[in-house]
Specification:
The structure is a single chain. This protein has 211 residues and is of the alpha/beta class. The protein has one domain: Rossmann fold (3-Layer(aba) Sandwich), CATH 3.40.50.300. It is built from eight helices and five strands; from the N terminus they run E-H-E-H-H-E-H-H-E-H-H-E-H. It has helices at residues 18-31, 46-56, 65-89, 100-110, 115-125, 141-151, 162-178, 192-206; strands at 7-12, 36-40, 93-97, 133-138, 183-187. It has a five-stranded parallel sheet, sandwiched between helices. Helix 3 packs parallel to helix 5 (115-125) and helix 4 (100-110) packs across helix 7.
């Protein structure tokens, strides 16, 4: 049985069916009579959405890697304290498109920022707070970026080179390997129906009826 106040994160590289995955999870959770809150990172609150716009926009000025990292955590702090935690206290199941697993993948593995530096900021901002489960939508960057380009104009981060996104993918898989009780990997390289089946299998395993 799904307990109220569950926090679920959906993560993965570009073009990995995250939006569709969130819809599947929301429908599954809602069918059990649990209220849901759908949110995203960076973003989720009015202030954090403004930070998102700055982060993803293309600027004439180069965005320093540390600036990007700190902006991510500034938005996350607002998101967690002003939306996620209050929603969990009120009994909602919170489903977020990206969370701190994205920061490890993009800023640590992708940008090369040390894990120790990120962990220090993480302790200040989150102090151990994390999703109950994180579902990683895994796809080869060649496939994912082709899907992303088909959606239209790419943002600043989506314009990075292929080697960057290969490192990002490695970052996600490394986290899943290190945290097998909390991370679940979905093969999103095929069609969405196949990915959907995997997602539902994870949810049924994690939240079986009668428990």
């Amino acid at each position: 049985m799904i307990q109220k106040g569950v926090f679920i994160a959906i993560d993965g590289g570009e073009g990995s069916y995250k939006t569709g995955a969130i819809s599947v999870i929301n429908e599954f959770i809602s069918s059990k009579g649990i209220k849901t809150v759908l949110t995203r990172e960076p973003g989720g609150t009015p202030f954090a959405e403004k930070v998102r716009s700055l982060l993803l926009a293309i600027h004439d000025e180069k965005i320093n890697e540390n600036t990007e990292l700190l902006m991510m955590y500034a938005a996350r702090s607002q998101h967690v304290e002003n939306l996620i935690k209050p929603s969990l206290v009120d009994g909602y199941c919170v489903i977020t498109d990206r969370f701190s697993s994205s920061t490890i993948a993009y800023q640590c593995f992708g940008r090369g920022i040390s894990r120790a530096k990120i962990d220090d900021i993480e302790r200040i901002v989150l102090n151990g707070f994390c999703p109950d489960i994180t579902i990683i939508m895994d796809v080869d960057p060649e496939i994912g970026l082709k899907r992303a380009r088909a959606r239209g104009v790419l943002d600043r981060i989506e314009l990075e080179n292929m080697d960057f996104f290969k490192r990002v993918r490695q970052g996600y898989l490394a986290q899943a390997n290190d945290n097998p009780d909390r991370f679940f990997v979905v093969d999103a390289s095929g069609d969405f129906d196949n990915a959907k089946k995997q997602i539902l299998d994870i949810l049924k395993m994690k939240f079986p009826e009668g428990i």
